[in-house]
Amino acid sequence: MDLLAAMQVFVHTVDKGSLQAAAEASGISPTMAGKHLRSLEARAGTRLLNRTTRRQSLTGFGQDYYLRCQEILRMVGESDMQAQNQQAAPTGTLRVTAPVSFGSEALVPALATYLSAYPLVRIDLSLSDRTADLVDEGFDAALRIGTLPDSGLVARALAPYRMMICASPDYLSRHGTPAKPEDLSHHECLSFSWSAASPWRITDDEGEHRVAIDGRLRVNHGGALRQAALHGLGIVMQPAVLLQHDVRAGRLVQLFADDTLPSRPMHVVHLPNHRSPKLRSFIDFVVTTFGA
What we know:
By secondary structure, this protein is of the alpha/beta class. Helices cover 43% and strands 24% of the residues. The strands form 3 sheets. Strands 3, 4, 5, 6, 7, 10, 11, 12 and 13 form a 9-stranded mixed beta sheet that branches. A two-stranded antiparallel sheet has the order 1-2.
């Protein structure tokens, strides 16, 4: 007898309260259902059900065996579903949230490749520096920067989110190039409004330096700080993803390139058991594009 079919008959018998009902749920005759049940008991070497003409009840071993059968059938069903999903083409709308700087400067340009590869998928991208709730707000996936809390989400690690210190050639020609981290305290340093009092941390061969920086301009937006640096208003420390294109084009000059600057972990997260073809294709793309 087929083992999985016999397990299914056994579980139906327990759930529905009778062999007759189990036979109907399984689409077989009561006689065949009885053969499945007897075959399963013979395989187990003991009775699974105490049966009389009026009632039935699980034996002690049957109770444990019933729970195990439920789990096995659930796993088989999920495996079949996964195999079916694997063969299905990604399609539909994918709702994603990401931090503003990373989303606008790195993720959006990369989406051209993803959308070209999956023409049946639409992306609804929300850029925000707050932590969105995937369940309450209906997001399929999120890009997260920083240490993840124990949220129950499935997380895939990406390359760390690294910082970069830069200034425009014009600023450096007027004010000079800082040779060591401590020199920054004598320069116009551009900072976020909410972190202006925080020192800049730079690690070189001598160890970590915590430099108290100052400047006449503070802004609450990374893109605006980049613009300020491009226009020669001072030295900026921002994510590399925000500044690296300007460095390559010569619009900004990278400072302390051989030293280590702060970095934060980055992940792409999604809800457990949410692995549709469109989501799986997006997660794989993000890990391939931005992975370590």
